[in-house]
Task: structure prediction
Amino acid sequence: MPTSDAATPVVSAFYDRFPYPGDPLQDGPPPGYNWRWCIDSASAFVVGSLAPRLEEKPRLWRILDAGCGTGVSTDYLAHLNPGAEILAVDISAGALDLARERCRRSEASAQVSELRIEQRSLLDLEGEGPFDYINSVGVLHHLREPAAGLRALAALLKPGGLLHLFLYADGGRWEIHRSQRVLTELGVGSGAEGLRLGRELFSSLPPSNRLRRHHEQRWAIDTAADANFADMYLHPQETSYNLQRLMAFVASADLQFAGFSNPEVWNPARLLSGELLERAQSLPLERQWALIEDLDPDISHFEFFLSKGPLGCTSWQSDADLLAAAGERNRCLWGWPGVALLDADMAPLDLGADGLALMKGLEAAPAGTALGALDLGWSAGHQAAVARRLVEQRVLLPVVPAAA
Result:
């Protein structure tokens, strides 16, 4: 296996010892859903609409899972994107053994047209693209040269395609970085002894100590699995970013920032109210984000979408345009069909009687039926208002008319 990044051998050996993520194996499909790994949901989130289907079949996406680890993301990608072609790669043979077993037990291969799980570096995939969607969660920040990794992924992305990334943030990792430096200075290593002494560090510090309190209050559950603890505190190669460096990093690969995939975190209304909120909302978006970064020192990561080239976005403010569009139900909903659901983020959602009626009417109609053509006995204005609310709730994914 080629090793294009200086950190590859040591990082590969680390994940052979501690295959990550440490989610348990189980029979059957993965539990629930993650809309960021459902490409229809992600595309509609970013651009506001879906492209029309050529036939009444799933969209046949080409997907790269770059740094798949033990296969949690690969499993979801297969089950949430039926018919897709998926290439999942990782540098750790130990992690890939678990990924293959996870996908075997979930019958992931039966969901897609092709599933390849291979020991390869994301830096050595020339000739494999282009991909409609690339998922690389928690990977680039473990390269010695993350910018080279981003350029490699950008070269594999189809124009108009989406790249989903997760990178560490400086602010919320202040205590983690200090703990890492302490363990490094004490020479505990990144093996079983390091794991033992790392856990002993937090149990032996005084209960009032900030590092101990931060670990126990915020990370103890997440790091209960040994692999997760090691990944957080013992990793031999790690980079983190602030917002300014993140945007420069994105620009270095000539990619477009297409939005945070946890947008609620970057909404000023989460932290401010009244006149302060009004002042914050009057700022350009990037300055709003910088304000939130300063206000919330617990933000420990950035998760976001990038695109190759600008994307045309649709806001659906025009009733006529919305009623001329077709639509599909977001597959990332819990409790359908029903009025009371869990939405794409697993939050409670009440569709209301009209919302349920429109979605049931849409599913009963032939594929490609315009929203305005659904025979619900409503005025055009009411039909558009109900549809727009469903779009805002991310229950209804509008489909642009084929001729548009």
In short: The mean pLDDT is 95. DSSP finds 15 helices and eleven strands in the chain.
